[in-house]
Specification:
elongated, single chain, 33 strands, 33-stranded antiparallel sheet, mainly beta
């Protein structure tokens, strides 16, 4: 069976036309920009073209160089090379790249039985230096056995060296006769002349049984790296393993789409030589599991406009949340810092928790009548910042107490109350301003409170105080009413 499948692939390749390029299009702006976070300037984007002509039959090499777009039959690409810039004076005899391709379908034994796997090795050699620093995309695409549509390739941005040589090997295990999501393996091996550079890889695969799958990986910089993606769509879980066979540290951005819907958008900074983990998610839930902890950072994109950043990956982290003011985070490593923000740089809304080993629950409402409560293990460091249209909120504390509660009514009459179960907070800072007319500032080196309430009845306030408060070191407590600040304690 293996030999028959291999013979079928070779036969199809040999029957391809050797004619000249049969389709040339020059497009300056007609490119597909992948959905990116608002902080896309941090890492450059791969501007993949929307090429799907290969699904009509045959095998082709698709190139885009500085807006010049071509489809070239595979045999011509292999034997003659491709003139990607339409300039006969560049490259070797006018050809700028040369391509070799090895297809290898195999039957292999897995836990569920014998399954067909499809491996494709794409090797691209740059001829000459004239195109070296242009924007370049190359893809190999076609249809295998009449039903397996695929596209693999790589992208190099403008002013980044196009690799002298790239070997990209992808394997798809489609599990055609089993109720099992497909698995994807991508191995990228680039060679540069002037030091390592950034490269992006793409794998598209579809058939009637499993739908359309798309894996995009950005390497910053590109090195010899093997990545395995194992989706479990119905369970909303993804297994990801990474093996880097190069000494230099590398950042990866991995995006996975199925049937046009984005499921995974991860950036992993400074990956180790080997790591494996699973991520699971739903609309209001995220979970991360691994057999080991890693001193790396993971950034998770979202279609809700928020970005999650996890610094120092633990063995386990689970987060439940909603936008109405609730977050439950469970983590097993105090060195982990968990951040949710609407941007990586200069966010206007952010929340972070660190020094947590266990569960922490945060509830809040940032309206003029609002509250903030934090319940969790003592020692948690929590920070919240929000710049809204009518309000500014800034909070930080090292919560040695297992319970902290703050309530307020920014009106006349109004009040603010605090309770820490008479346990200490450290490095406490609270600043809330509403419509530049009402506000509260509380700062303390050390503070604890028990049913402590400050109330007022008019804009020329006489503050009524109830409950207990105790502080050490510097302490400031100010309230603004109708635009005027008053010292409660200073």
């Amino acid at each position: 069976m293996q030999k028959k499948l291999a013979v079928m692939i070779v036969a199809m390749l040999m029957l391809l036309p050797i004619a000249s390029v049969n389709d040339i299009r020059i497009k300056k702006g007609d490119v597909v920009h992948d959905a990116e976070e608002s902080h896309s300037s941090i890492l450059r984007n791969a501007r993949w073209s929307s090429w799907h002509d290969y699904m009509q039959g045959g095998f082709f090499i698709h190139t885009v160089y500085n807006g010049i777009e071509k489809d070239t039959p595979v045999l011509q690409s292999i034997f003659s090379g491709i003139d990607v810039d339409n300039n006969p004076d560049t490259g070797v005899n006018g050809n700028d790249i040369k391509v070799s391709i090895i297809p290898l379908p195999l039957l292999q034994s897995t836990d569920v039985g014998m399954v067909l796997s499809i491996s494709l090795a794409l090797k691209v050699i740059r001829l000459g230096d004239e195109i070296k620093n242009g924007e370049f995309e190359i893809s190999f695409g076609g249809v295998i056995m009449g039903e397996h549509n695929f596209r693999i390739g790589y992208y190099s941005a403008e002013n980044e060296e196009i690799p002298k040589e790239v070997r990209e090997v992808v394997t798809v295990v489609p599990y055609l006769f089993y109720d099992h999501d497909p698995e994807f393996y991508i191995n990228m091996e680039p060679v540069f002349e002037g030091g390592v550079e950034n490269v992006s890889a793409i794998l598209e695969y579809s058939n009637a049984a499993v739908g359309e799958h798309r894996v995009m990986i950005d390497y910053f910089p590109a090195q010899n790296t093997m990545i395995k993606v194992t989706p479990h769509i119905e369970l909303s879980r993804f297994g990801i393993s990474i093996e880097r066979n190069a000494p230099q540290e590398e950042t990866l951005r991995l995006r996975y789409e199925m049937n046009g819907n984005a499921f995974v958008n991860l950036t992993i900074e400074d990956i180790p030589e080997r790591m494996a983990f699973t991520v699971g998610f739903s609309e209001n839930y995220f979970e991360y599991d691994a057999d080991d902890e890693f001193n790396v950072t993971m950034i998770i994109g979202s279609n809700m406009g928020f970005i999650t950043r996890i610094e120092y990956l633990p063995r386990h982290l689970a987060v439940s949340f909603n936008q109405n003011g609730y977050l439950d985070i469970n983590v097993d490593e105090r060195k982990t810092k968990f951040i949710v923000a609407n941007a990586l740089v200069d966010p206007t809304l952010s929340f972070s928790v660190t020094n947590l080993s266990g569960e922490c629950i945060v509830r809040w409402s940032m309206e003029s009548i609002g509250y903030l409560t934090i319940d969790g293990f003592a020692g948690v460091k929590a920070e919240i910042k929000a710049e809204m249209e009518n309000a500014y909120f800034d909070y930080y504390a090292e919560i040695k107490a297992e319970h902290f509660e703050l309530n307020w009514s920014m009106s006349i009459p109004g009040y603010i109350s605090m309770d820490t179960n008479w346990e200490w907070l450290a490095s406490y800072h609270f600043n809330y301003t509403y419509q530049d007319t009402f506000g509260v500032v509380i700062e303390s080196s050390m503070m604890r409170a028990r049913d402590y309430t400050v109330g007022w009845q008019s804009s020329f306030p006489f503050f009524s105080i109830d409950g207990d408060i105790e502080f050490m070191g510097d302490f400031v407590f100010k309230i603004m009413l109708d635009g005027t600040w008053y010292n409660v304690i200073s």
